Amino acid sequence: MMKQVLRISGDMHAQLRAHLHPGDLKEAIAFALCGRLSTSTHNGLLVHKLLLVPHNLCIRKGDFIEWPTDYIDDLIDEAAEKNMGILKIHSHPDGYDDFSKLDDESDKILFPSIYALMNEQAPHFSAIMYSDGGIKARVVHTDKEFQPVDNVSIVGDQVIIYRSMDNVGNDEINLRNLQTFGLGTTNLLKSLTVTVIGCSGTGSIVIEQLARLGVGKLIIADPDLIELKNLNRILNSSYDDAISGVEKVAVMQRAIAAMGFDTEVTTFKSLLQEDGLLLQAAMASDFILGSVDSIEGRNIMNTISTMYLVPYIDMGVKLVTDKKGGIDEISGSVHYLQPGKSSLRTRGVYTIDELAAEGLKRTNPEMYDEQRKNGYVVDINVESPAVIPINMQTASLAVLEFLARLHPYRYDPNSRFAQTNISISDWEIWHEAEGNDDPYLKKMVGRGDMRPMLNSPNLNELW
Domain JAB spans what residues (predicted)? Predict the structure, then answer.
């Protein structure tokens, strides 16, 4: 059955909460222009732009609100032009935790008029926000029938997911996780779909940890086969795997199956930038963790995070030689990326020129070589060597960051941990707060489906 989802960035959720619950215990209302998530498994609305209906234009009571319907005309016109969705969201300051009969009557009057102005009949949503910021949402179909939204995600410094949860029961295999993180976190992990891009040195360690923590579904991707040179750093790989040329993703899937956690695993033996189905799977995921050297891949994951409101953790390991047989620097970094904030580019992980050069090298190596000789593109590294101890350290920091975003456990707030760095050379670990917002990506928050895909002409053929 198609899963219905609603996603909101942390900043927009804060704006909605301040408007809908100003403290006077009267209902308030807002609307949102929403991008769409449309895959074979998911239908979703992604909040892109807010329209807060001024309180002074409304008749407001504790259990009633009347507002000027023409106030949203321009928003509906924009949604129709761009094939986007409309979210209606209002407050219940009295604490009533469900849609009221008045809400039902209002939605059955409003939404048919919205559908009548649309070029397509994709669904629109109605929602309630409670005083604590919690949200309950529903689809309002063209036939005026209502369908609950399966989960509502708030993607900010903390990732909050409102959904119905299955009981864990007395499953002894999860007992230690229950004790460490609590029943709520364990239930949430079991319900999550997490995409991991890259199954090599660091990625294989991340996958191992996520599976043993009890994540319900893992989507793992890597185009390569196990080779002899991989055996010193890829968990669960063997000499026989290298001789037989077994796919890295197959080795990960085999190891997870042997754990006995009933983790659902989907594998892709492909590059993210070359597989439309993998791109859609990442877009529909609850979380993305990336462990790749590719600038293209990292840029795409950062863009998916922004446009589809998916929290993204990037990790990297760096080993620099002194060109005399020794080591000059050993370091690792973990980045948490959220919609509308800084990006890997603004944090200096890569430049636009390096991104363009890598894309050209992959798609047209002859032209890349020619332009590099002529000085038109920058030279790029083909491989970044790594060793398993620093891989282990960096992967563990990434998974701890993942857990901290779901269930904050640090003394300091999550906002101070946009980036965590470790230097083995200096034997230091430090963290950094958010830097400057990425001005380009900020405009694309919650934009969702569009042509070209991810606003990138290079990906349009994968749609």
Answer: 12-119
228 Cβ contact partners less than 8 Å away, ≥ 6 residues apart? 239, 242, 243
The CB-side HSE value for 435 (13 A sphere, CA atoms) comes to: 15
Which tens digit of pLDDT belongs to each residue from 396-420?
999 999 999 999 999 999 999 999 9
Structural domains in the chain, sorted by start: 3-155 (3.40.140.10), 186-197+213-218+258-462 (3.40.50)
Global model pTM greater than 0.70: yes
| pLDDT 10s digits, 131-163 | 999 999 999 999 999 999 999 999 999 999 998
Q: At 105, which helix (H) or strand (E)?
A: helix 101-116
Q: What distance in Å separates the CA atoms of residue 28 and residue 91, rounded to the nearest whole number? A: 6
**Residue 132 is encoded by which pair of tokens?**
């604590």
Closest CA to 142 of 116, 162, 164, 160: 116
User: What gap in Å lies between CA 462 and CA 19, rounded to an integer?
Assistant: 40
State whether residue 110 is helix, strand or coil.
helix
What type of residue is 143? D
Indicate the DSSP class of residue 457.
G
pLDDT of residue 361: 60
What is the spatial distance between Cα 184 and Cα 168, in angstroms, rounded to a whole number?
A: 10
* Residues in CB range of 278: below 8 A, 6 or more apart: 219, 221, 268, 270, 272
Residue 436 buriedness (CB in 10 A; 0-12 / 13-18 / 19+): exposed
Task: Tell me if residue 177 falls in helix, strand or coil.
Answer: helix
Q: Walk across the sheet containing 428-432 and list its strands.
A: 264-268, 217-221, 193-197, 287-290, 312-321, 327-337, 419-423, 428-432
